[in-house]
Amino acid sequence: MLWTSILEANFNGSLGVIARKKTSTKLVLSVDLSFKSTTSSGEAGIPVVLTKLQHIHLSIDSSAASEVQRRSVWEAQRDGARTEDSCYPGIVPFTPHTTEVEAVDEHKYVFKAASLNHPSQVVRVGEANRSDYVWGKWPFTSTIIGAFATKYGNDKEIAPAHLSPWSYTSVAQAIDEDVYVPSSNHYPRREYT
Hints:
By secondary structure, the chain is mainly β.
């Protein structure tokens, strides 16, 4: 599920996050994700936290993990209005799989996924423009990207997620409008469970 929202969740239960501050304009974050939730509210994926209250993420939730027909949902919320588009890309959200977010410029994020059994069959799940979700007088924070897993406080069930390995690759830094300097920073894939 690729979606944006205003955070109003109560995280009284388990929440695991691996995250870092975005340090270059163009980058690629890749995380291998295996998610086997037995809870009706479990979720795991990769977020782009734009501001304190607004984020976009590609994730697997418990309902999608149990569906026969796997579904990816693009959902947007702005000024109280909600829109939703659904697509059926075939391999999303089969697990385990690789999830990826690419910052292609200062504003645009592209989300992709591929089955670990067929890594060359990459599906472009969706894209989001930062300016579509950051508006009004919301407090600004530096963009943070990473991986997460949660069961939203459901203590009676489990939602194990394996978020590993992951890599952060800096591609380029903007130095002027539409002018980029290539980056040589690459943070190799690391193992986390």
